[in-house]
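Appendix B. Raw example, untouched.
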Amino acid sequence: MTLPHTLGELKKSNFSEQQLVSRKVKDEIRENLMAKIRSGATIFPGIVGYDDTVVPQLINALLSRHNFILLGLRGQAKSRILRALTSLLDPHLPYVSGCEIHDNPYAPICRRCIELIAIEKDETAISYLMPDDRYVEKLATPDVTIADLIGDVDPIKAARGGHDLSSEMTVHYGLLPRANRGIFAINELPDLAGKIQVGLFNIMQEGDVQIKGYPLRLPLDVALVFSANPEDYTARGKIVTPLKDRIGSEIRTHYPATLEEGIEITSHESWSRRDGLELHVPRYIREVVERIAFLAREDKKIDKRSGVSQRLPISVLENVISNAERRGLRNDEKTIVPRISDVYAALPSITGKLELEYEGEMRGGDTVARELVRLSVAKTYDVYFKDVNMQQVVQWFELGGEIKLADSAGAREILEGLKNIQGLTERLAPLGIKPKEKIETLVSAAEFILEGLHAHRRIGRSEERVFAADKQAKRVEKPFEQEEQPLRNRRPYN
């Protein structure tokens, strides 16, 4: 489609004056949303786990033409949702070329465009905004000023243009006017100083802003959206009551409710497709990685108010793959298959994302992270082998058997040793592993079984990754019950 490039051409096109003047940005979002709902299309592609919770509330807010706020802990896709709103905007929006606030050609509000159209009339040049151009985002910080958001006088404009300081031509527009006819998002709203939040009152209630020092009012057309962490209300600031009153809808986000949702998000967001080498990430590895985040959110040693971001399993999976990739390159392996040892190697991507309580601080981030991995391995192991008799494997170690599964050792080298463990390679079927699988896959699966037995303390493992009998292990059906005991009553870990 050829787009009009002058005001005269625009008047003869499908961009009618009535549509561009009377149809505000919230009406535009509403109409496009309604069309998507009618067609059965996915409203927000890539947003997983919110279909029955957040998305319906969000749709209601948009259909109501509300300004809204997303409240949730870190790593709950708040910014992603706000940025996805551009999918509900028209593909092209005409505006007066060169205008800082993207003025409507049929109803200009800035002095520069009013005078330009009066002179050039139908020859006024027209440009177009794409949906992404109509989204303006600002991270709220305590140093943000009214001039940043709304605007102020610009002495340089006055000097260069020969204008009087009282002229509208000397206005420097802030981010909010520059978002005119689009979406303006403020992340972490409570971090914005209270006196700056007051500057948003007019645009939310009356639909206009007043530039400091000028007797002009700009009737802007903006959809305002916000995000905030509930903890910020007391930790760093708060949303002033009159502003909260003007926000139409308050929508709560949350972490994935099920392991499947978490795995889907992590698989979609992580960089798991590496060039040059064949990569296969077993299902049980993905489950172990995802369970770490789920367990961390329930662990008493970790601050629940801070939350455990979904970025944790994403970063862990990327590190797991990278460690397996490093080993594969060193041993000239054609297929990269991560092992549980690679999850332990990814501890640096866990410790930095955990805010610890006092007990956690006393034990140390590395120790807490190792416990999370061990517990995750145990729970994942139970999914596949809870009803499988592993006594033959355990007995091999109790009779004096030992095997070292070095993190850097190649699959072919390790497989020779694993074949000596009676009954081990015959018990891979629950993982969907066939006897003729690639050796990298066989080694990964066999190591998972040994790590699962170690997590349940049926066999021992040293820091050098030597698996042997654990003669001091206490046989209990729930090996982690002691985790709930007071710290002073716990037996030291081996």
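End of appendix B.
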